[in-house]
UniProtKB/TrEMBL annotation:
Domain of life: Bacteria
The keyword Transmembrane helix is annotated on this UniProt entry: yes
Pfam families associated with the record: DUF554 (PF04474)
Coiled coil: none
First and last residue of the signal peptide: none
Protein name: DUF554 family protein
Keywords tagged on the record: Membrane, Transmembrane, Transmembrane helix
Membrane-spanning segments: 6-22, 34-51, 57-75, 96-120, 140-170, 182-207, 213-233
Amino acid sequence: MVLLGALVNGVAIIIGTMLGKLLERIPESMKNTVMNGIGLAIVVLGVQMGLKSGNFLIVILSLVIGAVAGEWINIEDRFTRAGNWLERRVGAGGQGSISLGFVTASLVFVVGAMAILGALDSGIKGDHQILYTKAIMDGFISIILTSTLGVGVLFSAVPVVLYEGIIALLATQITRFVPEALLNDCIAEMTAAGGIMIMAIGLNLLGITKIKVANLLPGILVAVLLVVLVHGFQLN
């Protein structure tokens, strides 16, 4: 089943959120320390991913063009409004903001190499091991995020399953049209651009910055388009 890995990932986030609800009463100082630890780890992960690039100019252009497109579409505001709508529908659950939990968790779980690589493996090879591993990681992260940001983390399972599921479905046909070398380069630059966004998420969690990370998301698609253009010029 092509979508099995994505579905398992979504279920892990839901289970993690439920477990996180049980930890709401832990001391505030402990929550802050744990959140700082997660923020630092996410920053380091982002740096590692950012260094995967084979052509950093592509990453820079991707972020610049992606930021312009994201600000024009105002993705961050749309995410926030979706979270606020959920908050009005189901309530904040007594702790944390559904909007903040939804937006933060969605970005943490969606923007990353494992989501892309795992979904590609699911579609191309029928191998879900990467997404199973990601599911375990996301489950533990969702426990901590829920204990600090609230039940909004639960709803991040929806964009995660949709994102990974769509990539997996497309990947079942991608090898027919995309050469392996081009696919590898696309993944490398998408990973690098995504890594910088992951680092921004970590800095936001640490309270150092207030970067609108969601408005940078189009940069991932721009990275793919730029890699395709570069390959086209090289062939000519």
